[in-house]
Structure formats: C-alpha cells, structure tokens
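TL;DR need structure tokens for one chain.
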Amino acid sequence: MTNDKSVSVPEIYPNFNQRLSGKTGFQRMAMTALPFIPRHAYHPFLAEIHIAIKKLANWPSQVRKSFRNRRNLKINVGPGLSAKQDWVNIDIFRFPGVNCIYDCRKSLPFADESAAVVFTEHFFEHIDYVEEAPFFLSECRRVLQPQGVLRIIVPDVERYVRAYCNDGWEDLTEVRPLHPDHSDVHFGSRFQTKMEVLNAVFRQYFEHKFAYDFPTLEMALKRAGFTDIRRQAFGKSASSDLCIDNPSRVSESLYVEAVKTK
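>> reply
TL;DR here they are.
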C-alpha cells in the first residue's frame, strides 16, 4: 500500500487507510516493526492475535463448564451488534448484549442436545470452507435437540451473479443498496465497476472466506449429517423463535434451515 497521496486507490473497502489509526499496543508495534509486510497480509494476522488474546481472557474450558447443565437454549452465533434478548449471544468480541465470549469457528461450548434452535446471520461466510465450516456445522448438529432447527443466513451469490450479468446497475442496486454515485448505503464503499461490488461482497477485505448459493450450502449441511434441509425466506421459519432476521439485509440474503432428525 503506497503512502503517496497523489496515487488514487480504490474505495471498495471502507476505511482501509484508517484501519490502524489510533491503535496502540501490539497492533501499533506490529505496524511499525513490520513495515515491509503489506497491510493485506498482516491485518488477518493481527485479527487472529486479537482473537487469541480474547480466548486467553475467556478460557474455553471455563466457558464450556458454565453451560454444562443448561438446556433448551436459543443460540445466536456471531451476532455482533445484533444480540437478542433471552438468547445465548455467542461472539468472540464483546458487543452489547453478547453474553458468551467464545471462538465458535470450530466448536461450540454447549452440551449435546442442549439447544432448541441455533441462529446465525451473516457469520457463516466469515469462516473457512475447508478448515472450519465442516466442524462448525457438525457442532451445530451436535448441540441441537431432536427436531431442533439451525437457521443460516448468508449473502446469496446467485442473486449477485444474476444481477451482475444483466445490463446496467439497476438490478445490482436492488440486491445491494447503492446511492446514485454507486456508493454503498450501509458501508460507505464507492464502486466504479460491478465487479468491484462482487469482490467487496464476497471478499470484504480479508473477512469473507467463501461465497454460497443454495446447492453449495445444502451440500455442506448434508456432509454435517443434516437430512431435512429447506430453503426459506425472510421472516419464515420452521420455528417461530427463529424469525429474528435483520430486515436491512433481506435483498441480498440466502435463508436456509436444517432440522435435526433422529
């Protein structure tokens, strides 16, 4: 990343140049000590260090112990700022309402068959398709009670690709809300081409790890042992508890549910 302000750089990732501004401690040390490593390489590394520190402060075995005897849980995985009242809101970062700090990419801290429902919205695309997703889905199936429901919401690659293939920006703007100058309504990014939109959505800097359509997500769920898999719609669910979708993401989202059958 150049420091030459005369060079125009893409604006497809919000606040790229400000990601480390105001940082202190290890992140600042890494930024100054490793100037020869490009930001796109060490930002993921710093993120993993941050997660490791969170795990040290919230030792996984202690978290598991605290949930050992709890049953009929409603679990909200990776809610960020969308924690729900009366749910177990599990996230590695302490956002408001998050009441379980845990790295749930490869395991969940709950007992077998202790959850009535598991909900995750725009989290699953953040975990690696090979190294993490199979473990996460298997863990969801393990903690669900018989007839328990897993609801997964992710960006719908099919919607984006169909809109990309059509002429002009109109169809793509219906999927991803954009201002007339093609800047992102939600995140502030500004795009010059439709391909920049797709890359921002399905890469999101280094944060998104895989893009899903229904057949691919269905296949991943089958590999984890689910057999009753359904494509759903916004606000429609096999369980009334799971109708907690974020309405601001409906235009771009894929809704899928899997029921744990005996």
